[in-house]
Specification:
TIM Barrel, globular, 8 strands, eight-stranded parallel β-sheet, 247 residues, 13% strand, alpha/beta
Length: 247
């Protein structure tokens, strides 16, 4: 009796451990930017001294224009991953981003966790955003960043089916919740320096918008971005993602 009970407990614990490992493995494959388990994505090349500034969750009518003005002052071009429904609501601002020489990417229509979405939902989120952006811009969309970085094979297949290059990152901080631009910039600087010491370019994520609020306060993020540009532009080269794909 005791032996049977012990064996049952052992089997139960083993099953629980297996499930835990499986869940942990899925989370790593779906969310960790460096994971290649579910497929490859553009992050950054071995090109120390190069920086790609990327901005997610806009366009934000309150803060994206401030960001564009700041980047223009220093002649820096960036890549903006826009939410489809926000782009539809702000077509003029979306065109302004492109006309300023920045690249624009697909960040889904409504910013769901696509790793947990159905295949139909994934295709709808990406294709609707692509169609909207191409109508606004009169040009094809080249890049896709999954919301939260969350993906699974069906997400990457849908992106590739639309001719989109999946993009993740290697330098990010919690700028969406940090009220201090100085803290945001300092954290990113340390990440950039570490990457540069290892010979890598930096693919930096900041947020000019919020998937929860189309006019969210992104003042700290915008200020941090301009602070980074001021500090790094003398000795670094800022690029859009197009250059990394072409090279």
């Amino acid at each position: 009796m005791l032996t049977t009970l012990a064996n049952g407990m052992e089997a139960g614990l083993g099953a629980a451990a297996t499930l835990g490992l499986a869940a942990g493995g899925f989370a790593y494959a779906a969310l960790w930017p460096a994971s290649r388990i579910f497929g490859s994505a553009l992050i950054a090349p071995r090109a120390a001294g190069q920086l790609a500034l990327t901005f997610d969750d806009g366009p934000n009518p309150a803060f994206t224009p401030q960001l564009l003005d700041g980047l223009e002052e220093f002649g820096v071009r960036a890549t903006f991953f826009v939410v489809g429904q926000y782009a539809q609501a702000e077509p003029g601002l979306t065109r302004r981003i492109a006309e300023a020489g920045h690249a624009i990417g697909n960040h889904s229509w409504s910013h769901p966790n696509l790793a947990l979405a159905s295949g139909d939902r994934i295709r709808e989120e990406l294709s609707r955003t692509n169609e909207t952006l191409e109508q606004i811009l009169g040009a094809r969309v080249r890049f896709f960043r999954p919301p939260f970085g969350a993906r699974r094979p069906a997400v990457l297949r849908a992106a590739c089916g639309l001719g989109l290059e999946p993009v993740l990152w290697n330098a990010m901080t919690t700028d969406w919740s940090e009220p201090s631009a100085e803290v945001i910039a300092g954290r990113l600087l340390r990440k950039i320096e570490r990457l540069e010491g290892q010979g890598w370019a930096a693919n930096v994520v900041l947020h000019d918008g919020s998937h929860l609020d189309p006019v969210a306060d992104r003042g700290p993020s915008v200020s941090a971005a301009i602070r980074l540009v001021k500090l790094l532009s003398p000795n670094h080269r800022f690029v859009t993602l197009d250059e990394w794909v072409q090279s």
